[in-house]
Design brief:
The complex is a heterodimer of chains A (794) and B (263).
Chain A (H helix, E strand, L loop, with lengths): L1 H15 L7 E10 L10 E4 L6 E3 L5 E7 L1 E8 L6 E7 L3 E2 L2 E3 L7 H4 L16 E4 L1 H6 L9 H4 L6 E3 L7 E3 L7 E5 L2 E2 L4 E2 L4 E2 L6 E7 L13 E7 L6 E8 L3 E10 L4 E10 L1 H5 L5 H5 E15 L4 E16 L3 E19 L2 E20 L4 E21 L4 E20 L3 H4 L6 E15 L4 E14 L3 E6 L5 E7 L5 E16 L4 E12 L1 E4 L10 E4 L7 E14 L2 E18 L15 E17 L4 E15 L9 E2 L6 E10 L4 E10 L3 E2 L2 E7 L13 E6 L5 E2 L3 E14 L3 E10 L7 E8 L6 E7 L4 E13 L7
Parallel strand pairs in A: 1-7, 1-8, 12-17
Antiparallel strand pairs in A: 1-4, 2-3, 2-5, 5-6, 9-16, 10-11, 12-13, 14-15, 16-17, 18-19, 18-50, 19-20, 20-21, 21-22, 22-23, 23-24, 24-25, 25-26, 26-27, 27-28, 28-31, 29-30, 31-32, 32-35, 33-34, 35-36, 36-37, 37-38, 38-39, 38-40, 40-41, 41-46, 42-45, 43-44, 46-47, 47-50, 48-49
Chain B lengths: L1 H17 L3 E5 L10 E8 L6 E6 L1 E2 L13 E6 L4 E3 L1 E4 L2 E3 L10 E8 L2 E8 L6 E8 L7 E8 L7 E7 L9 E4 L7 E5 L10 E9 L1 H12 L23 E15 L2
Classes of the chains: A mainly beta (794), B mainly beta (263).
């Protein structure tokens, strides 16, 4: 046994030092989109003449590949782009950039005959979905507003939290276990209008990747998923502007190269205009209402030279809801990311990011009738520094390593009021520091076996001003600990190993297996499935333990002519999950952690995904069979109970059909088992005020339930359709009309089920509240494009 | 003019599809549960008799019939050494005959039923009086009224309140609970959100000073009553302050009441 280990170690060293033995050279460069010179991440660069020699471009489109001297054929491919094949002769280290042309749907049927255009099955990545932004544009969503967070909910293992909502749940987790990042900046509340719209304007989004728990070591910080959203950089070839006019919102963007293509920028904005209509209303209450959101995205990049690039990108969005003069809720996110890319040498790539993100809300209440006024301000700010290195060691090993430091500053509620008593009830600040270092290797063991292994070491503690409480068994504060200064407290260190193995059975089929551990140090306390701005983020402290998840998965991946099929099955163990004590209150609660209870979770399931990529009809079928459970010693006598997002059957069908050059159609179908909920099982009466005159009254009918979440909402079913009519399509000018109908069959899917009592007859009844039956929408989209680079043609 | 109509049509359509919802009554299959004993007992600072009411829970239905329960015996005793066997003149209703409710005294209630004993105790807090009461028009409909009471919360103690309106048949069934964590020592307006009162109505505003166990019970009853909505923090059954598996509460509280007339 020892000999065997020694031998394999020797082989390993041999592979690492491999370049010494051969006359090798390194080719490196960027893979870009030919139409606008934006970088393409995750493109596969393969040397056709050498089996098994290939590499993926990194997050910034950079690749590096070490190959023997001589003549080779290189193929470069990426989803949604034409595969290019190129003959190269290399005698010394060389920079070779590849520009991929976008795939034209009309000629796709011809191209697909070539075997090389297949989806990649050999990557060492499982549980990952990349969203094709072209598909996002086609898929119908409510009110015609394209939305990446709603489109990912049509993929296996990703469930909507509630109808029409951008909040989602991944593989039996909770809604706060998803890290949503826009250009590496965390977006804490990724929704507008209480969740009905996401904060991401699809005009500004370049690509979206979702890692469903099996993330490589470079990602971390949440238990269930990472949603990595990258903004468009702005075209380096043409000036373009465009936008859309929809029923509730309008969009506008501009992008252009600058300084002789050394730089480019993109600016995009959106605003809803429901309030423009409400201002015209004769009803004074409607007239006074505030109801809008807007957001801006901007990105600028500058190439100092071939080796040094700078990116600056940001997001700013606000929502305003309320009745002017009575109450106003104002909330939104701000993010700012500055990144510096440097090619240190032809094998080593560096990225340094400085990231700022902020989520805040203001609540103003002014009820003059009862002399009540209140102004609450809550702010959550992160400052991060991130350093990543990509080291393309040789044709067998691609290493990534780096570190991330994030300082969290949480101001849960600063209260002011004309009444000094209310004003004194500001909630204590908390500050935390999250550090992580990682190293990972994408290792080609053999032509058939690829391995990605790595370790993320996360370190967390409170730092600066914090207030910790210790409680007795009745929840009374027995000890208050005021912390300040740079000494860290409540420190934890979590090694998070990650490994994925891919075994290629043949050119079309592979088997994959993976394991990943994740830790989470910031948690959302919410009593809603929909996203409310006032939901409260809390840092781990002496009472709130960091969450830990372990996920095991195996999968089968297969491609055949124009189709892809995969099955993944997972088992996830969750530790230190949070629930609430009976009677817990989230609002204005300084000692919120005494009202929390801690327990475990487990989730498992099978995800099936079948996709047709070519032809006039494209689309997919996704089915997930799953279970998600929790266990708290305080609930149901410590027995396992169903998570409220336990929905055993979850089916999505997406179909897109290109009828001709003018018309295209799409349809989606969503079916899932209803949420697990606690319904009343019995009823009793209380008087609440016993005196001789009313002894036989039951003023109050109360319900009581059995086991937590032992009953179910009715099953959910919905179908949406959309049609796009291209009005004009030329290289410079494009415009179309998009028609959509949400909930085609008019299903009255319950949004809420409430057990009520009639105030007059005292009769009990069950009431279902539903939204959105037959919601038609029409959107006009336009785009102008002018090539302003003289020596090149499209 | 015509354009305006179209605008309002669009607006109305948007608002109704987005922000207004439709409701309808439905039937759902529910798991029925076993019947439980429900005990409700009160002692106040007002002259007696004080009552204890025994009943039974039933399966969920639209018009439940709550049946009275006859106990083997119901006994109330005080921290001052008094002890009294409660008598019953009508099914399920037990009353004291000589016991006097006093602030600061701890009362204990023992109910013996079918060989089981249910015990609870409660301490009557000091009286907090209503300063003044007033009515004000509803924010959205000026023809309807809400009422509120001004109360000066005592500064040097932790106070728990339960308050409700009575004296008008349409006001049954709404209770409010509040502690003084946020308002300690301040003059505070305790408001209600019953907006169905009209000019000429009069109601009684009742302010109860309750002890902490009762505050916890009532807070769960008011805020966490299992009503099926998805928006509940942790749907759970309220724990009674009785030892033994039963529902209900035993509360010794002091009452301050004022009549509010809406002019």
């Amino acid at each position: 046994m020892f000999r065997l280990i020694q031998f394999s170690f020797f082989i390993f060293i041999l592979q690492i030092t491999n370049p010494i033995f051969a006359q090798n050279v390194t080719i490196s460069g960027y893979v870009t989109d030919k139409s606008n010179s934006e970088n393409i991440k995750g493109a596969m660069i393969q040397i056709t003449s050498l089996t098994g020699v290939g590499v993926y471009s990194n997050s910034y489109g950079f690749y590096s590949l070490t190959i023997p001297k001589g003549n080779h054929t290189v193929t470069v491919k990426y989803l949604g782009f034409e595969t290019i094949e190129q003959s190269i002769t290399v005698e010394e280290n060389k920079t070779i950039n590849f520009a991929l042309p976008k795939k034209n749907r009309q000629i796709a049927q011809v191209v697909i005959k070539s075997k090389k255009n297949k989806q990649d099955i050999s990557s060492t990545q499982m549980g990952k979905v990349d969203l094709d932004m072209k598909e996002v544009e086609k898929i119908p969503v409510i009110l015609g507003e394209k939305d990446v967070l709603k489109t990912i909910q049509l993929l296996p293992g990703i469930m909507t939290a509630q109808e029409g909502n951008s909040n989602f749940v991944v593989r039996g987790g909770n809604t706060d276990q998803n890290l949503i990042q826009l250009d590496e900046a965390t977006v804490y509340n990724a929704t507008h209008l209480l969740g009905f719209f996401s904060t991401f304007n699809s005009d500004a989004v370049k690509d979206v990747s979702v890692y469903k728990g099996n993330m490589p070591a470079e990602y971390g910080g949440r238990l269930s998923s990472i949603v990595d959203i990258k903004m468009k950089e702005g075209s380096k070839k043409y000036l373009s502007f465009g936008g859309g006019i929809g029923l509730i919102a309008s969009r506008l963007y501009v992008e252009s190269p600058l300084f002789n293509q050394k730089a480019s920028f993109l600016v995009a904005g959106r605003r809803t205009y429901v309030d423009a209509f409400t201002a015209l209303s004769s009803d004074s209450n409607v007239k006074r209402s505030a109801l809008y959101f807007y957001d801006f995205n901007g990105k600028f990049n500058y190439n100092f030279d071939d080796k040094n690039k700078l990116y600056v990108s940001g997001y700013f969005g606000r929502d305003r809801l309320g009745l002017n003069g009575l109450f106003i809720v104002d909330y939104g996110n701000t993010t700012l990311t500055t990144r510096y890319n440097r090619i240190i040498n032809d094998k080593l790539f560096s990225n340094t990011s400085l990231i700022y993100n902020n989520f805040n809300y203001d609540v103003t209440l002014n009820f003059q009738n009862i002399d009540f006024d209140l102004y609450v301000r809550s702010i959550l700010t992160d400052f991060s520094l991130k350093q990543d290195f990509d080291y393309f060691l040789n044709d067998k090993n691609s290493l990534k390593f780096g570190f991330l430091g994030t300082y969290h500053n949480v101001l849960p509620g600063e209260v002011s009021s004309s009444n000094p008593i209310i004003a004194s009830n500001t909630l204590s600040k908390s500050n935390g520091l999250e550090l992580a270092a990682y190293i990972q290797n994408d290792h080609k063991i053999s032509e058939k076996l690829n391995l990605n292994y790595g370790l993320r070491l996360s370190f967390y503690g409170l730092i600066g001003n914090n207030t910790n409480y210790n409680y007795d068994e009745f929840g009374r504060v027995i000890d208050t600990l005021k912390l300040s200064g740079l000494n860290m407290s409540n420190v934890v260190l979590n090694p998070e190993p990650r490994v994925t193995a891919t075994y290629k059975l043949n050119e079309e089929t592979s088997l994959k297996a993976s394991y990943a551990r994740n830790a989470q140090y910031i948690h959302l306390l919410s009593n809603n499935t929909s996203a409310q701005p006032t939901d409260r983020w809390v840092l781990s402290n002496n009472n709130i333990r960091p969450g830990i998840s372990d996920q095991f998965a195996i999968g089968y991946f297969r491609n055949f002519e124009g189709f892809e099929f995969n099955v993944e099955t997972y088992y996830k163990i969750l530790q230190n999950q949070i629930d609430y004590k009976t009677g817990a209150l989230l609002r204005a609660n300084e000692t919120i952690d005494k009202d929390l209870i801690y327990g475990d979770g487990r989730a498992y399931g099978v995800e099936l995904f079948f996709k047709k990529n070519t032809g006039k009809l494209t689309g997919w079928v996704s089915y997930t069979l799953s279970r998600s459970e929790r266990r708290f010693s305080e609930v149901s006598d410590g027995a396992w109970f169903l998570s409220r997002f336990d929905r055993p059957h979850y089916l999505n069908v997406v179909a897109m059909y290109e009828l001709n050059k003018k018309w295209s159609f799409s349809a989606t179908l969503v079916y899932y088992t209803g949420n697990a909920v606690t319904f009343p099982s019995g009823i009793y009466g209380l008087n609440g005020n016993l005196n001789s005159t009313n002894l036989n009254n039951n003023n109050y009918f109360l319900n009581y339930g059995n086991t937590r979440n032992s009953q179910r909402f009715p099953d959910y079913f919905r179908m949406d359709i959309a049609a796009t009519l291209k009005l004009k399509e030329t290289p410079t000018w494009y415009h179309d009309l998009n028609f959509s109908l949400y909930n085609l069959t008019g299903m009255k899917n319950p949004y809420l089920i409430t057990f009520k009592s009639d105030e007059v007859t005292r009769e009990n009844f069950i009431e279902k509240t539903y939204l959105f039956t037959f919601v038609p929408a029409i959107t006009y989209n336009f785009r102008f494009k002018k090539n302003i680079v003289k020596n090149e043609t499209e | 003019m015509k354009q305006n109509n179209i605008l309002f049509f669009v607006l109305g359509f948007l608002l109704s599809s987005l922000f207004l919802s439709c409701s309808e009554r439905i039937n759902l299959p529910l798991n029925p549960s076993d019947s439980k004993l429900v005990i409700e007992g009160e002692v106040t600072n007002l002259p007696g008799p004080y009552f204890v009411k025994l009943s039974q829970s039933v399966a969920y239905e639209s018009s439940p019939i709550i049946l009275p329960v006859t106990a083997d015996s119901v006994i109330m005793s005080t921290s001052e050494g008094q002890r009294e066997l409660l008598t019953s003149n009508q099914p399920g209703i037990y009353q004291t005959n000589s016991l006097i409710g006093k602030e600061g005294v701890t009362y204990e209630l023992a109910v013996y039923h079918k060989g089981k004993q249910y015990l609870a105790s409660s301490t009557m807090p000091n009286l907090v009086s209503i300063d003044s009461v007033y009515s004000y028009p509803d924010l959205f409909n000026p023809d309807l009224f809400n009422v509120a009471a001004r109360i000066l919360d005592p500064v040097n103690q932790t106070n728990y309140y339960r308050y409700f309106l009575s004296g008008n048949p349409k006001l049954q069934g709404n209770f409010y609970v509040l502690d003084d964590v946020l308002i300690n020592g301040s003059k505070w307006n305790f408001s209600t959100n019953r907006d169905d009162l009209k000019r000429g109505d009069s109601v009684v505003f009742n302010l109860l000073s309750i002890d902490r166990p009762n505050f916890l019970i009532w807070r769960v009853l008011v805020e966490n009553n299992i009503n099926g909505t998805d928006n509940q923090l942790s749907p759970d059954n309220p724990k009674s302050n009785f030892s033994g598996d039963c529902l209900g509460y035993f509360s010794a509280h002091s009452i301050s009441s004022r009549i509010v007339y809406i002019p």
